[in-house]
Automatic annotation (TrEMBL):
This is Allantoin permease. Keywords: Membrane, Transmembrane, Transmembrane helix. GO terms for molecular function: nucleobase transmembrane transporter activity. The keyword Transcription does not apply. The lineage of its organism: Eukaryota, Fungi, Dikarya, Ascomycota, Pezizomycotina. The chain crosses the membrane at residues 31-48, 96-115, 122-143, 196-218, 238-260, 281-301, 307-332. It is a multi-pass membrane protein. It comes from Colletotrichum spinosum. Gene3D superfamilies: Hydantoin permease. Belongs to the purine-cytosine permease (2.A.39) family. The keyword Transmembrane applies. It is found in: Membrane.
Length: 352
Protein backbone atom coordinates (compact mmCIF):
# COMPACT_ATOMS: atom_id res chain seq x y z
CA UNK A 1 0.00 0.00 0.00
CA UNK A 2 2.86 2.38 0.77
CA UNK A 3 4.28 1.81 -2.72
CA UNK A 4 0.83 2.47 -4.19
CA UNK A 5 0.52 5.77 -2.30
CA UNK A 6 4.02 6.96 -3.26
CA UNK A 7 3.66 5.89 -6.89
CA UNK A 8 0.22 7.49 -7.23
CA UNK A 9 1.45 10.71 -5.61
CA UNK A 10 4.30 10.99 -8.12
CA UNK A 11 1.93 10.20 -10.97
CA UNK A 12 -0.52 12.87 -9.87
CA UNK A 13 2.18 15.54 -9.88
CA UNK A 14 3.37 14.50 -13.35
CA UNK A 15 -0.17 14.41 -14.73
CA UNK A 16 -0.90 17.95 -13.53
CA UNK A 17 2.39 19.30 -14.90
CA UNK A 18 1.89 17.56 -18.24
CA UNK A 19 -1.72 18.74 -18.58
CA UNK A 20 -1.19 22.47 -18.13
CA UNK A 21 0.07 23.33 -21.62
CA UNK A 22 -2.53 21.25 -23.45
CA UNK A 23 -5.31 22.76 -21.34
CA UNK A 24 -4.12 26.30 -21.99
CA UNK A 25 -3.49 25.99 -25.74
CA UNK A 26 -6.08 23.29 -26.57
CA UNK A 27 -3.76 21.04 -28.57
CA UNK A 28 -3.41 17.26 -28.51
CA UNK A 29 -0.26 15.20 -28.05
CA UNK A 30 0.77 15.03 -31.76
CA UNK A 31 0.88 18.84 -31.85
CA UNK A 32 1.96 19.44 -28.25
CA UNK A 33 5.12 17.35 -28.59
CA UNK A 34 6.23 19.41 -31.61
CA UNK A 35 7.20 22.23 -29.26
CA UNK A 36 9.86 20.03 -27.67
CA UNK A 37 10.94 17.89 -30.64
CA UNK A 38 10.17 20.07 -33.65
CA UNK A 39 7.58 19.49 -36.35
CA UNK A 40 9.67 16.75 -37.99
CA UNK A 41 11.30 15.31 -34.87
CA UNK A 42 7.92 14.87 -33.21
CA UNK A 43 7.14 11.99 -35.57
CA UNK A 44 9.48 9.71 -33.61
CA UNK A 45 7.70 10.47 -30.32
CA UNK A 46 4.31 10.02 -31.96
CA UNK A 47 5.33 6.66 -33.42
CA UNK A 48 6.66 5.48 -30.05
CA UNK A 49 3.45 6.42 -28.25
CA UNK A 50 1.29 4.79 -30.90
CA UNK A 51 3.30 1.55 -30.74
CA UNK A 52 3.06 1.39 -26.96
CA UNK A 53 -0.68 2.18 -27.04
CA UNK A 54 -1.31 -0.72 -29.44
CA UNK A 55 0.48 -3.13 -27.09
CA UNK A 56 -1.33 -1.71 -24.08
CA UNK A 57 -4.65 -2.05 -25.96
CA UNK A 58 -3.80 -5.70 -26.58
CA UNK A 59 -2.98 -6.47 -22.94
CA UNK A 60 -6.12 -4.70 -21.73
CA UNK A 61 -8.12 -6.73 -24.26
CA UNK A 62 -6.61 -9.88 -22.82
CA UNK A 63 -7.76 -8.83 -19.34
CA UNK A 64 -11.20 -8.22 -20.80
CA UNK A 65 -11.12 -11.63 -22.45
CA UNK A 66 -10.31 -13.39 -19.19
CA UNK A 67 -13.16 -11.59 -17.43
CA UNK A 68 -15.43 -12.45 -20.36
CA UNK A 69 -14.49 -16.10 -19.86
CA UNK A 70 -15.54 -15.86 -16.19
CA UNK A 71 -18.82 -14.15 -17.14
CA UNK A 72 -19.57 -16.82 -19.76
CA UNK A 73 -18.82 -19.54 -17.21
CA UNK A 74 -21.29 -17.88 -14.83
CA UNK A 75 -23.93 -17.97 -17.58
CA UNK A 76 -23.35 -21.37 -19.19
CA UNK A 77 -21.72 -23.29 -16.35
CA UNK A 78 -20.52 -26.77 -17.36
CA UNK A 79 -21.26 -25.95 -21.01
CA UNK A 80 -18.47 -23.37 -20.98
CA UNK A 81 -16.12 -25.47 -18.83
CA UNK A 82 -16.62 -28.40 -21.19
CA UNK A 83 -15.05 -26.68 -24.20
CA UNK A 84 -12.08 -28.89 -25.14
CA UNK A 85 -8.64 -27.35 -25.18
CA UNK A 86 -7.12 -28.03 -28.59
CA UNK A 87 -4.15 -25.68 -28.24
CA UNK A 88 -0.69 -26.89 -27.15
CA UNK A 89 0.67 -25.82 -23.78
CA UNK A 90 3.23 -23.66 -25.58
CA UNK A 91 0.42 -21.43 -26.86
CA UNK A 92 0.13 -19.87 -23.40
CA UNK A 93 -3.68 -19.78 -23.56
CA UNK A 94 -6.53 -22.28 -23.63
CA UNK A 95 -9.09 -22.61 -26.41
CA UNK A 96 -11.97 -21.23 -24.34
CA UNK A 97 -9.94 -18.26 -23.14
CA UNK A 98 -8.85 -17.51 -26.70
CA UNK A 99 -12.50 -17.66 -27.74
CA UNK A 100 -13.40 -15.31 -24.88
CA UNK A 101 -10.64 -12.92 -26.00
CA UNK A 102 -12.16 -12.62 -29.46
CA UNK A 103 -15.68 -12.33 -28.01
CA UNK A 104 -14.47 -9.35 -25.98
CA UNK A 105 -12.60 -7.97 -28.99
CA UNK A 106 -15.78 -8.10 -31.09
CA UNK A 107 -17.89 -6.54 -28.32
CA UNK A 108 -15.59 -3.55 -27.91
CA UNK A 109 -14.89 -3.04 -31.63
CA UNK A 110 -17.99 -0.85 -32.30
CA UNK A 111 -16.70 1.64 -29.71
CA UNK A 112 -14.10 2.65 -32.31
CA UNK A 113 -16.86 4.44 -34.21
CA UNK A 114 -18.32 6.36 -31.26
CA UNK A 115 -17.42 10.05 -31.09
CA UNK A 116 -15.38 11.02 -28.00
CA UNK A 117 -18.05 13.51 -26.90
CA UNK A 118 -20.52 10.62 -26.66
CA UNK A 119 -18.03 8.33 -24.92
CA UNK A 120 -18.34 10.42 -21.77
CA UNK A 121 -21.64 8.67 -21.10
CA UNK A 122 -19.83 5.32 -21.18
CA UNK A 123 -17.41 6.57 -18.52
CA UNK A 124 -20.29 7.63 -16.28
CA UNK A 125 -21.96 4.22 -16.54
CA UNK A 126 -18.60 2.49 -16.09
CA UNK A 127 -17.79 4.40 -12.93
CA UNK A 128 -21.09 3.39 -11.32
CA UNK A 129 -21.08 -0.25 -12.45
CA UNK A 130 -17.42 -0.93 -11.65
CA UNK A 131 -17.56 0.74 -8.24
CA UNK A 132 -20.68 -1.20 -7.30
CA UNK A 133 -19.07 -4.48 -8.39
CA UNK A 134 -15.82 -3.86 -6.51
CA UNK A 135 -17.54 -2.90 -3.28
CA UNK A 136 -19.99 -5.77 -3.68
CA UNK A 137 -17.24 -8.39 -3.92
CA UNK A 138 -15.35 -6.75 -1.05
CA UNK A 139 -18.49 -6.77 1.11
CA UNK A 140 -19.14 -10.42 0.33
CA UNK A 141 -15.54 -11.37 1.13
CA UNK A 142 -15.57 -9.49 4.44
CA UNK A 143 -18.90 -11.07 5.43
CA UNK A 144 -17.70 -14.58 4.57
CA UNK A 145 -14.48 -13.90 6.49
CA UNK A 146 -16.38 -13.22 9.70
CA UNK A 147 -16.58 -9.46 9.28
CA UNK A 148 -12.80 -9.01 9.06
CA UNK A 149 -10.56 -7.69 6.28
CA UNK A 150 -7.89 -10.23 7.14
CA UNK A 151 -4.29 -9.83 8.14
CA UNK A 152 -3.00 -8.42 4.81
CA UNK A 153 -0.29 -11.07 5.14
CA UNK A 154 0.16 -12.46 1.63
CA UNK A 155 2.93 -14.88 2.45
CA UNK A 156 5.88 -12.67 1.53
CA UNK A 157 9.07 -12.44 3.55
CA UNK A 158 9.48 -9.53 5.98
CA UNK A 159 12.20 -7.14 4.86
CA UNK A 160 13.94 -4.29 6.62
CA UNK A 161 16.76 -1.84 6.03
CA UNK A 162 18.68 -2.04 2.77
CA UNK A 163 16.95 -5.30 1.81
CA UNK A 164 13.67 -3.38 1.64
CA UNK A 165 14.88 -0.53 -0.58
CA UNK A 166 15.09 -2.21 -3.99
CA UNK A 167 11.84 -4.20 -3.68
CA UNK A 168 10.11 -0.96 -2.64
CA UNK A 169 11.56 0.90 -5.63
CA UNK A 170 10.47 -1.94 -7.90
CA UNK A 171 6.96 -1.85 -6.43
CA UNK A 172 6.71 1.93 -6.91
CA UNK A 173 7.97 1.56 -10.48
CA UNK A 174 5.36 -1.15 -11.16
CA UNK A 175 2.56 1.13 -9.90
CA UNK A 176 3.78 3.98 -12.09
CA UNK A 177 4.38 1.74 -15.10
CA UNK A 178 0.81 0.41 -15.00
CA UNK A 179 -0.52 3.96 -15.37
CA UNK A 180 2.25 5.69 -17.31
CA UNK A 181 0.37 5.68 -20.67
CA UNK A 182 -2.08 8.06 -19.00
CA UNK A 183 0.78 10.50 -18.41
CA UNK A 184 1.65 10.79 -22.08
CA UNK A 185 -2.02 10.90 -23.08
CA UNK A 186 -2.78 13.94 -20.92
CA UNK A 187 -2.51 16.42 -23.81
CA UNK A 188 -5.34 14.48 -25.48
CA UNK A 189 -7.52 14.16 -22.38
CA UNK A 190 -6.15 17.05 -20.31
CA UNK A 191 -7.83 17.76 -17.01
CA UNK A 192 -7.06 20.62 -14.63
CA UNK A 193 -7.17 18.45 -11.51
CA UNK A 194 -6.27 14.86 -10.74
CA UNK A 195 -7.53 12.90 -7.74
CA UNK A 196 -4.88 10.97 -5.84
CA UNK A 197 -7.54 9.56 -3.52
CA UNK A 198 -9.33 7.65 -6.30
CA UNK A 199 -6.18 5.83 -7.41
CA UNK A 200 -5.18 4.87 -3.88
CA UNK A 201 -8.76 3.78 -3.11
CA UNK A 202 -8.81 1.33 -6.02
CA UNK A 203 -5.50 -0.17 -4.94
CA UNK A 204 -6.72 -0.45 -1.34
CA UNK A 205 -9.89 -2.20 -2.53
CA UNK A 206 -7.81 -4.76 -4.43
CA UNK A 207 -5.56 -5.45 -1.43
CA UNK A 208 -8.48 -5.58 1.02
CA UNK A 209 -10.52 -7.92 -1.20
CA UNK A 210 -7.55 -10.22 -1.73
CA UNK A 211 -6.85 -10.27 2.01
CA UNK A 212 -10.45 -11.00 3.02
CA UNK A 213 -10.95 -13.56 0.23
CA UNK A 214 -7.74 -15.35 1.24
CA UNK A 215 -9.31 -16.10 4.60
CA UNK A 216 -12.27 -17.68 2.82
CA UNK A 217 -10.60 -19.41 -0.11
CA UNK A 218 -7.30 -20.27 1.56
CA UNK A 219 -5.24 -18.65 -1.21
CA UNK A 220 -4.39 -15.12 -2.36
CA UNK A 221 -5.54 -14.21 -5.88
CA UNK A 222 -4.11 -11.06 -7.46
CA UNK A 223 -5.75 -11.37 -10.87
CA UNK A 224 -9.37 -10.34 -10.54
CA UNK A 225 -10.50 -13.04 -13.00
CA UNK A 226 -8.70 -15.73 -10.98
CA UNK A 227 -10.43 -14.49 -7.82
CA UNK A 228 -13.87 -14.46 -9.46
CA UNK A 229 -13.28 -17.88 -10.98
CA UNK A 230 -12.23 -19.28 -7.58
CA UNK A 231 -15.38 -17.86 -5.97
CA UNK A 232 -17.49 -19.57 -8.63
CA UNK A 233 -15.71 -22.88 -8.04
CA UNK A 234 -15.99 -22.75 -4.25
CA UNK A 235 -19.52 -21.34 -3.93
CA UNK A 236 -21.21 -22.54 -7.11
CA UNK A 237 -24.88 -21.67 -7.08
CA UNK A 238 -27.41 -19.16 -8.45
CA UNK A 239 -26.33 -16.37 -6.09
CA UNK A 240 -22.61 -16.71 -6.80
CA UNK A 241 -23.21 -17.02 -10.55
CA UNK A 242 -25.35 -13.86 -10.66
CA UNK A 243 -23.00 -11.88 -8.43
CA UNK A 244 -19.84 -12.84 -10.31
CA UNK A 245 -21.51 -12.18 -13.67
CA UNK A 246 -22.44 -8.61 -12.72
CA UNK A 247 -19.06 -7.98 -11.06
CA UNK A 248 -17.29 -9.25 -14.20
CA UNK A 249 -19.56 -7.17 -16.43
CA UNK A 250 -18.62 -4.03 -14.49
CA UNK A 251 -14.91 -4.75 -14.91
CA UNK A 252 -15.39 -5.55 -18.60
CA UNK A 253 -17.09 -2.19 -19.07
CA UNK A 254 -14.18 -0.49 -17.29
CA UNK A 255 -11.68 -2.12 -19.66
CA UNK A 256 -13.71 -1.09 -22.71
CA UNK A 257 -13.67 2.51 -21.46
CA UNK A 258 -9.95 2.36 -20.66
CA UNK A 259 -9.12 1.01 -24.10
CA UNK A 260 -11.20 3.69 -25.77
CA UNK A 261 -9.87 6.66 -23.84
CA UNK A 262 -6.26 5.65 -23.14
CA UNK A 263 -5.33 3.49 -26.12
CA UNK A 264 -7.39 3.50 -29.30
CA UNK A 265 -8.13 7.24 -29.32
CA UNK A 266 -4.44 8.15 -28.84
CA UNK A 267 -3.49 5.76 -31.65
CA UNK A 268 -6.11 7.41 -33.86
CA UNK A 269 -4.76 10.86 -33.00
CA UNK A 270 -1.18 9.72 -33.63
CA UNK A 271 -2.09 8.13 -36.96
CA UNK A 272 -3.76 11.32 -38.13
CA UNK A 273 -0.72 13.26 -36.94
CA UNK A 274 1.72 11.07 -38.88
CA UNK A 275 -0.26 10.51 -42.06
CA UNK A 276 -3.18 12.98 -42.09
CA UNK A 277 -3.81 12.44 -45.78
CA UNK A 278 -4.58 8.75 -45.34
CA UNK A 279 -5.55 8.20 -41.69
CA UNK A 280 -8.17 9.95 -39.62
CA UNK A 281 -8.91 9.22 -35.96
CA UNK A 282 -11.49 6.51 -36.66
CA UNK A 283 -9.22 4.71 -39.14
CA UNK A 284 -6.38 4.89 -36.62
CA UNK A 285 -8.58 3.34 -33.95
CA UNK A 286 -9.58 0.52 -36.29
CA UNK A 287 -5.93 -0.14 -37.12
CA UNK A 288 -5.17 -0.29 -33.39
CA UNK A 289 -7.92 -2.86 -32.82
CA UNK A 290 -6.84 -4.96 -35.80
CA UNK A 291 -3.20 -5.05 -34.66
CA UNK A 292 -4.03 -6.04 -31.07
CA UNK A 293 -4.42 -9.84 -31.60
CA UNK A 294 -1.07 -9.96 -33.40
CA UNK A 295 0.64 -8.72 -30.21
CA UNK A 296 -0.25 -12.09 -28.55
CA UNK A 297 -0.80 -10.42 -25.15
CA UNK A 298 -1.21 -13.77 -23.37
CA UNK A 299 2.48 -14.34 -24.08
CA UNK A 300 3.46 -10.92 -22.78
CA UNK A 301 1.87 -11.45 -19.37
CA UNK A 302 2.31 -15.22 -19.12
CA UNK A 303 4.17 -14.87 -15.81
CA UNK A 304 4.79 -12.25 -13.16
CA UNK A 305 8.42 -11.77 -14.24
CA UNK A 306 7.57 -11.33 -17.92
CA UNK A 307 4.76 -8.92 -17.03
CA UNK A 308 7.07 -6.76 -14.92
CA UNK A 309 9.58 -6.84 -17.77
CA UNK A 310 6.84 -5.67 -20.12
CA UNK A 311 5.83 -2.84 -17.78
CA UNK A 312 9.43 -1.71 -17.45
CA UNK A 313 10.07 -1.88 -21.18
CA UNK A 314 7.51 0.68 -22.25
CA UNK A 315 8.20 2.89 -19.22
CA UNK A 316 11.68 3.37 -20.66
CA UNK A 317 10.12 5.03 -23.70
CA UNK A 318 7.16 6.91 -22.23
CA UNK A 319 8.61 8.43 -19.06
CA UNK A 320 11.48 10.20 -20.90
CA UNK A 321 8.88 11.58 -23.31
CA UNK A 322 6.93 13.02 -20.36
CA UNK A 323 10.11 14.45 -18.88
CA UNK A 324 11.13 16.14 -22.13
CA UNK A 325 7.69 17.71 -22.59
CA UNK A 326 7.51 18.98 -19.00
CA UNK A 327 11.00 20.49 -18.99
CA UNK A 328 10.42 22.10 -22.38
CA UNK A 329 7.12 23.68 -21.31
CA UNK A 330 7.92 24.73 -17.74
CA UNK A 331 11.68 25.45 -17.84
CA UNK A 332 12.74 26.28 -21.40
CA UNK A 333 9.61 28.02 -22.72
CA UNK A 334 8.18 29.01 -19.34
CA UNK A 335 4.68 28.13 -20.40
CA UNK A 336 4.68 30.03 -23.70
CA UNK A 337 3.84 28.47 -27.07
CA UNK A 338 3.22 30.13 -30.42
CA UNK A 339 0.49 27.81 -31.60
CA UNK A 340 0.42 28.76 -35.35
CA UNK A 341 4.12 27.89 -35.61
CA UNK A 342 3.40 24.34 -34.38
CA UNK A 343 1.70 23.67 -37.72
CA UNK A 344 4.44 24.81 -40.09
CA UNK A 345 8.02 23.93 -40.99
CA UNK A 346 8.65 27.30 -42.60
CA UNK A 347 12.10 28.81 -42.22
CA UNK A 348 12.30 30.92 -39.10
CA UNK A 349 9.66 28.96 -37.19
CA UNK A 350 10.76 28.26 -33.60
CA UNK A 351 9.65 24.63 -33.99
CA UNK A 352 10.90 23.87 -37.52
Amino acid sequence: MLAAVIGSAILSVVVVLNSRGATRYHVGFPVYVRAAAGVSGAKLFIAVRASVAVIYYATQSFYGGMLTSVALRAIFGPGWDGIPDRLPASAGITSKNLLAFFVFWIVQFPVMFVHPTILRHLFVVKSVATTAGLFGVLGWAVRMNGGELGSFDFGGASLAGSALVWPMIQAINSVMAALCPILVNQPDVARPLVSLVSKVLVMFLSCATTSAAAGVLGESYWNVWDLYDAILTEFWGPGARAGIFFASAGMILAIVATNAGSNSLPVGADGSGLWPRYINIVRGQVICALLAPFCVPWKIIASASSFLTFLGSYTVFLMPTCGIMMVDYWVIRRGNFHVPSLYTKAEGSPYA
